[in-house]
Write a structure and sequence with these properties.
Length: 162
């Protein structure tokens, strides 16, 4: 199972239910990685999408504690156990955890690969991803050259569980 995330220097991922920054090349990278695949996300993350709709050309699985929660064109599960059972239907290499913070934390133990866009900046934030650089179980297996978007430097890193 994979996860995909964009983090700043403090491993922050968001502020007030918004991304820290919008980098077109990061969005392109996200689309290329996840199109045609299975994405797993929480209800709050879904609500930040345009019109609050599931991502096109992907199987969207939403984890929500609300038993009445429904979304057109998405599979809704209500617990990690139910999610894991649902995910058995798919090839684990085609599954991407896409957020938010609580979903990442709950699903990180099940992931083998983390696609991380590391943004060389420190933003005001209220949500964070676990720092994989401080976790001895994870190591970088691939990295891109540093890229820039206006004055923002970033790079794409691939972490794999040891």
């Amino acid at each position: 199972m994979n996860l995909i995330v964009a983090v700043d220097n403090n491993w922050a991922i968001g502020n007030k239910n918004e991304l820290l920054v919008r980098i077109p090349n990061d969005h392109k990278h996200f689309r290329e990685e996840t199109t045609g695949k299975v994405v797993v996300l929480g209800r709050k993350t879904l609500e930040t999408f345009p019109q609050g709709l599931p991502l096109k050309n992907r199987t969207n699985i939403i984890l929500s504690r609300d038993p009445k929660y429904q979304v057109k064109d998405a599979v809704i599960v209500h617990s990690v156990d139910e999610l894991l059972e649902e995910l058995r239907k798919y090839d684990e290499e085609d599954i991407y955890i896409i957020g938010g913070e609580s979903i990442y934390r709950q699903m990180l133990p099940y992931c083998k690969v983390a696609h991380v866009t590391k943004i060389d900046h420190e933003y005001e934030a209220d949500t964070y991803f676990p720092n994989l650089d401080q976790d001895e179980n994870w190591h970088i297996t691939a990295d891109s050259d540093e890229q820039t978007y206006f004055d923002i430097a970033y790079q794409f890193l691939k972490y794999e569980r040891k």
